[in-house]
Amino acid sequence: MITPKTLKGFRDFLPEFMLPRENLIERATKVFRSYGFCPIDTPALEYLEILQGKGSEETDRQLYKFEDHGGRKVGLRFDLTVPLARYVAQHFSELTFPFKRYHIGKVWRGENTQAGRYREFMQCDFDTIGTKSIVSDIEITLIINDLLERIDLKSDNSFTRFKIRVNNRKILTGLLDKNNISDKTTNLLRVLDKLNKIGKQAVSNEMVEVAGITSRQADQILEFVLLSGSNDGMLLSLQKMLSGNLIGEEGVAGLAELVGAVNAAGIPAERVVIDVSIARGLDYYTGTIYETFLDDLPNIGSVCSGGRYDNLASIYTKQELPGVGGSLGLDRLISAMEELGMIEKISTPVNIFMPYFVEGRLGDYLTFLRKLKLSGIGVEFYPESKKIGQQLKYADKRGFRLVIIIGEDEFQKGTCQIKDLRTGYSSEISQVDAADKIKEFL
Amino acid sequence: MITPKTLKGFRDFLPEFMLPRENLIERATKVFRSYGFCPIDTPALEYLEILQGKGSEETDRQLYKFEDHGGRKVGLRFDLTVPLARYVAQHFSELTFPFKRYHIGKVWRGENTQAGRYREFMQCDFDTIGTKSIVSDIEITLIINDLLERIDLKSDNSFTRFKIRVNNRKILTGLLDKNNISDKTTNLLRVLDKLNKIGKQAVSNEMVEVAGITSRQADQILEFVLLSGSNDGMLLSLQKMLSGNLIGEEGVAGLAELVGAVNAAGIPAERVVIDVSIARGLDYYTGTIYETFLDDLPNIGSVCSGGRYDNLASIYTKQELPGVGGSLGLDRLISAMEELGMIEKISTPVNIFMPYFVEGRLGDYLTFLRKLKLSGIGVEFYPESKKIGQQLKYADKRGFRLVIIIGEDEFQKGTCQIKDLRTGYSSEISQVDAADKIKEFL
Hints:
2 copies of one chain form a homodimer.
Chain A: H1 15-34, E1 38-39, E2 45-47, H2 48-52, H3 57-62, E3 65-67, E4 73-76, H4 81-90, E5 99-108, E6 120-129, H5 134-150, E7 162-168, H6 169-178, H7 185-192, H8 195-198, H9 200-211, H10 215-225, H11 231-242, H12 246-264, E8 272-274, E9 288-294, E10 304-309, E11 323-328, H13 330-339, E12 352-354, H14 362-374, E13 379-381, H15 388-398, E14 402-405, H16 408-413, E15 415-420, E16 426-430, H17 434-441
Parallel strand pairs in A: 1-5, 7-8, 12-13, 12-14
Antiparallel strand pairs in A: 2-4, 3-4, 5-6, 6-11, 7-9, 9-10, 10-11, 14-15, 15-16
Helix pairs in contact in A: 1-5, 5-12, 6-12, 7-9, 9-10, 11-12
């Protein structure tokens, strides 16, 4: 006998966890498609060379890698960005650009497991490749908005209380450029990262000591990072601060156009806010940067992030491939929705249960069920004519809402009993118009 | 520069292949759910011990296996049945039985690549675990029927021309048992498998020589395997042939109840046919066996197969877990649909394209697009205000159906031009009721 167990850091999904995940993915897919984004898929296994091409030491250490049957060095993908870069380079002549794709799939990282961290998890990425137009940055913002707005898993519940924080990498670049300290970017970012931990004064000192800038420069950088206010106010301050520096002005203009257009499209002004402190991937992104926070659960971090990059696939192709995109944190979002009571605890994909009551009437039950099905009503039928009590206990455990009971009496009369398991309400209706009645009822 | 390439036997999915696959999966999911089947998921990586537990030499040779960072021997799952068995044994106390699940996921086999064979492919399994009731066998038959009926990817096209061939393992068992040659089952099956290749006489001779049965017995087995006719006729012949043998009679009764109930449920009688020659997994299945063939493409083989088994997880648990299920051959079905012209060649998930015509009007375009979106109409908007000819060329390449054009004139008048790219029909409509007009049009 072998003990049935999963590997550390890996998990099985029981129906009650899988149903909300599948629902969420379905809704996200609809949003992507409504903007003309196409699904793609790539293999779980890639040549190690491809995966290590641009990887850091950390991703390299976390890689699941081995030799396959043909002696090839292979690995499991650790994100969907490297496969996208490889894909676009490989199929360049078969694709039409701008190429808009979404990709929902598993990735693997052999990292140390901790609370909420898994070695296998699902990623959900969306990107527009092949254009530098700010219109694509705006579209990504609209998609993030729609994703959060439309993934209401309970019918009358949706995320309206969220903020998409936007920044533009060019603003920091411009600021450092204007001060002639662009060469110190990496060191400065490392120090700035400690702001929440060690405080303003210590950061200022350290910037002077470690990065070798003047204290006036350090203060200006701090003033910049701590800027806050309305979008209009922020834009004014930034314009003033960066005036005369071409790249900085470009960054400010990009943000101005983005928030303006997003508001014109009808998104509430308070939902897309300029925040120069968000520093996600400042070493990777080159333009717009996004992070998305839930007002009610700010501490869980960003649930949808992304940004613009200059060149996706420079290690695979000479084609310059600028792009912009985002990544929806499915698992984080599901945890948040659970915490906010936005997920119904159900373990059945249909609302209706029908016990198998009269043994000799199987054909009649099936005929009735088929009629309901052709009207679009799904029903779970119990496969054994056990005692009715046992079958109802099963129904209760599974969490059905409605039970349809047809006993010999009802067959004779051409009726059925329907019973709401939550309210206890029950009623006898004709089998002929059962479909309509049940639809009304649900 | 690294050459962007995929591993041999692995493939990328371009949008035009991915869209039908995603559509097919969505429709299959709806069918499973309408019968109360729940989604589950399991890890791609499992302990090697789990995967090898019941595997044959062949699966063992094809396994992608390696040592992970913690020195554990692991492998990529090669099917969804072993993970199901492990899952049900491991979560036995958390699940409610009968447990009905579907599982759509990738599996990996390092087999020799040949036409149409891949080392990574998608499986789509559905099973009911924990009941011996024939009602579950009937339900699986209905699901197979619905899967084939409802996956019409073109609106007015569906598979009505298909046959679900059913057999019952107990019938052959009964026949051999009645002849006191059950101990020769494996050898006999091996010889019978050559029937199409070497013909009736050679098979008869070989059965006598290799399996050591009498020629009278050989003739009876051949007569049995070649039986054909209507379901009623078949049932009569089988009853006669197996009369007095308990297990054989059980098999015939099971088939009789299955075809009777399925017809009662409203499935045309000619669609579910008894065929004692189908021998899928006769060494694995213990009751009902299914295979499904398309009338128009019989040679591609079964597109949906399965059967009943006595005990799913005997190597992981002492719990007896009988079950019945099937597996939809997604890739085979998509190939078939392509061959039958049932798949529209499109590479866009929305029908409508809108060029970016007047540069200064971005906000107005976005406002209009948002209004359409809130009415449920998805539109792809071109992100660059390039020459209109270039944008329309893109639209044409991508295969959109409708183009909405708004130039400065139209903005002034509050109208838009809509143009059907297939028929050339065009019309100028008011922006205010554009949503309704476009819905009518599509």
